[in-house]
Amino acid sequence: MHVIKFSSEDCGTCHKMSHYDANVAEELGAEFVSVMLQDTEAYRKYRKVLLKQYPNKEGMGWPTYLLVTDPEGDFTIHGELKGGMPKGEFRTRLGALLAG
Mean pLDDT for each consecutive 10-residue tract of the chain (100 residues)? Predict the structure, then answer.
């Protein structure tokens, strides 16, 4: 399972969560991919995943985390987390999604 984080360089909440989100995802056994919208190469690579969940980007949170299998191929989205939260809550919610 991959956790793809869609965020922006100018998002304070995204930056705050970057202090622990990748470590938590990896501790829970997921591969973590960070996609900054300003990183055109990474964004192009994972754009199809984001647009499948948010065709016109309405309703996205900052940051948005999508749980995906085979993100570079015939991917499937298994869940999402949106917005900022404390480390413990992020671990609990991500763990529940990964277990489900």
Answer: 96 97 98 96 96 92 96 96 97 96
Q: Are 67 and 80 in contact (CB under 8 A)?
A: yes
**Domains of the chain in sequence order:** 2-99 (3.40.30.10)
Taking only Cα atoms into account, the Rg of the chain, rounded to an integer number of angstroms, comes to 12
- Residue 90's Cα: distance from chain center in Å? 12
Q: Would you say 35 and 6 are in contact if contact means Cβ atoms under 8 Å apart?
A: yes
CA distance 97 to 51: 20
Task: For residues 2 and 69, give the distance between their C-alpha atoms in angstroms, rounded to a whole number.
Answer: 6
The first and second tokens of residue 36, run together, are 């900054």
